[in-house]
From TrEMBL:
Acidic residues: bias regions: 474-490
Family (UniProt): Belongs to the hexokinase family.
Annotated organism of origin: Gasterosteus aculeatus aculeatus
Domain Hexokinase C-terminal: 227-461
Membrane spanning stretches: none
Superkingdom per UniProt: Eukaryota
Keywords: ATP-binding, Glycolysis, Kinase, Nucleotide-binding, Transferase
Protein name in the entry: Phosphotransferase
A single cellular component GO annotation: mitochondrion
GO terms of biological process kind: glucose metabolic process; glycolytic process; intracellular glucose homeostasis
EC number(s) per entry: 2.7.1.-
Region: Disordered, residue numbers: 469-490
An annotated Gene Ontology molecular function: fructokinase activity
């Protein structure tokens, strides 16, 4: 496969124009993005970031740029015990997290997974939050924490409009939930009301956390230069620290705020149509949300396997693979999982893995077929890594320009199975960032449990800022008293 890949260089004169391999190459060229095209994509995203931040333009912006009300990253002085609640599917997690200043560590002391019965997902909001409050109490009781009043970080992975760090309005349910009386309501208020109804325990301050922000914050305690968070797994998203003066939808100009870009929606206005292939169009049309999350559908784990499958079917129908014979499994939508791409592209066992996958699909293959399938996977995963790298470079360049720095040194906290499990993805992404953001020195740090430990860290930072604000007010009050005393003496 390496020899074949080196021979099939895009734009090369080998193989001859009438060769089947040349026909395969013509399909793969559609996934190849030149440096110039990646720069164009980056520039389009740069303009969309500005539109999303605008007070009057954000309504129509495909990249939503949501304020998170997280106003600082960790400084290493955070400490204490915290609870974290992670609700994003049919199960939710409760965690007890300890932040240790001296050792610069965030420890998960204990955790518990609680199921949400299917009927409860379709019931009333009061039932759902009563169930969450009951599970939270069971956790506290079993770990002798029921008499403590601990601050809580709440990762609520549904579309919300955040109004403050502790106020978040549910826009709509997704992922099979449809509880009545919750859409349009503040989920923090609903949680606190459910706990109050019980009357047998209490919680401290609550911080609402997006999982991407949690990714950045969980890395930020270990590396205080971490100011970007990125997830590239089933879906994709990123956040970064923006200058407050540019966040037109929130009052105040001083300091910074973390912005949840929701960059998966990049291209929803048609701006990526020139790089979408016919296979991307089919994936979009067959999805549950056509026309939405265009960028995500080109790069994330939920869709990469299906893009590969559609291309393999087309190559087979054109007589360029498997002797022109498909199989029932290959013709089954979503049967080709993204994890197969990672297995096929492994350096040492890739060819063997390819043949196992093809046999699993009931296909009659030869060695050339195996090599072509590896090239197909490589073309599609490489495009994903490069597009993701171009988007990340846009954020890094923006931070550098915002701060008027000749060179930016920053860290990106990263999570997601595509980044962590694919053998070449991370290196291709980094190479693209180096190419498109040459004045940015970027370190990558893999996040540990962004929705758990990261949520606790958001709460810890919010507490630190509140404490500093109180101390400042007290010192200002003392200064005022001293000035009044001086005036009286005079």
């Amino acid at each position: 496969a390496p020899e074949l890949r080196s021979k099939i260089t895009l734009g090369s004169r080998w193989p001859p124009s009438n060769s089947p391999i040349r026909s395969v190459q013509r399909y793969l060229e559609r996934f190849h993005l030149t440096r110039e095209k990646l720069q164009e994509v980056s520039e389009r995203l740069r303009k969309d970031l500005i539109r999303g931040l605008g007070k009057h333009s954000h309504h129509k912006a495909p990249v939503k740029m949501l304020p998170t009300f997280v106003r600082a990253t960790p400084d290493g002085t955070e400490k204490g015990d915290f609870l974290a609640l992670d609700l994003g599917g049919t199960n939710f997690r409760v965690l007890h997290v300890r932040v240790m200043e001296e050792q610069q560590r965030v420890l998960k002391m204990d955790s518990q997974i609680c199921a949400i019965p299917k009927e409860m997902m379709q019931g009333t909001g009061e039932q759902l939050f009563d169930h969450i409050a009951a599970c939270l109490y069971d956790f506290l009781l079993s770990h002798n924490l029921e008499r403590e009043t601990l601050p809580l970080g709440f990762t609520f992975s549904f579309p919300c409009e955040q109004k403050e760090i502790d106020k978040s309005i549910l826009i709509r349910w997704t992922k099979g939930f449809n509880c009545s009386g919750v859409e349009g309501e503040d989920v923090v208020k609903l949680l606190k009301e459910a706990i109050r109804r019980r009357g047998d325990y209490d919680i401290g301050s609550v911080a609402m956390v997006n999982d991407t922000v949690g990714t950045m914050m969980s890395c930020g305690f270990r590396d205080q230069s971490c100011e970007i968070g990125m997830i590239i797994g089933t879906g994709t998203n990123a956040c970064y620290m923006e200058e407050m003066k540019n966040v037109k939808r929130v009052e105040g100009e001083a300091g910074r705020m973390c912005i949840n870009t929701e960059w998966g929606g990049f291209g929803d206005d048609g701006s990526l149509r020139d790089i979408q292939t016919e296979f991307d169009v089919v994936v979009d049309e067959m999805s549950i949300n056509p026309g939405v999350h265009t960028f995500e559908k080109m790069i994330s784990g939920m869709y990469l396997g299906e893009i590969v499958r559609l291309l393999l079917v087309r190559l087979t129908e054109d007589g360029l693979l498997f002797g022109g014979r498909t199989s029932k499994a290959l013709l089954t939508p979503e049967a080709f999982e993204t994890k197969f791409i990672s297995e096929i592209e492994e350096q040492d066992n890739g060819l063997e893995n390819t043949q196992k996958v093809l046999s699993k699909f009931g296909l009659k293959w030869d060695t050339v077929d195996s090599c072509v399938v590896r090239l197909v996977c490589d073309a599609i995963s490489s495009r994903s890594a490069r597009l993701c790298g171009a988007a990340l470079a846009t954020l890094a360049n923006r931070i550098r320009v915002n701060r008027r720095q000749e060179r930016l040194k920053t860290t990106v906290g990263v999570d997601g199975t595509v980044y962590k499990k694919h053998p070449n993805f991370s290196e291709e992404l980094r190479a693209t960032v180096r190419l498109l953001a040459p004045k940015c020195d970027i370190t990558f740090l893999v996040s540990e449990d962004g929705s758990g430990k990261g949520a606790a860290m958001v709460t810890a930072v919010a507490q630190r800022l509140a404490r500093q604000s109180r101390l400042l007010e007290e010192s200002d009050g003392e200064t005022d008293d001293e000035e009044e005393e001086e005036e009286e003496d005079q």
